[in-house]
């Protein structure tokens, strides 16, 4: 727990991606992607999920990074506008899957919501 102003909040100490499921042993195969140390995140250098996504969609690392950055901008804008309603989020995420450029532009210009 950390204190943000007068409020106590949970702090993320690491990010782990699930890469596979071993049904025989009833365990998850995981890969640690980020670790928090002294208030900063360290990237492990390899996301197996990103690698699988690049292969599946035939994308370069630069293309995937650009798409990830765009999705992060969209999600940050949704957080800034305190969008948490399930139906609004569902509609925006569906619209993004069909017309990502238009949804991003509208969100950044404050036209959607």
**Number of separate strands:** 5
Strand content: 25-35%
Described by strand count, sense and barrel closure, the largest sheet is: 3 strands, antiparallel
The portion of residues assigned to helices is 40-55%
Series of H and E elements: EEEEEHHHH
Strand order of the largest sheet: 3-4-5
Structural class: alpha+beta
Shape: globular
Give Rg in angstroms: 17 Å
C-alpha end-to-end distance: 33 Å
Low-confidence stretches: none
Compute the number of structural domains. 2
| Total DSSP helices | 4
pLDDT averaged residue by residue: 87
Summarize the structure.
With 113 residues, this protein is of the alpha+beta class. The chain has helices at 48-57, 61-80, 86-98, 100-108, and strands spanning 2-4, 7-9, 14-22, 27-37, 40-43.
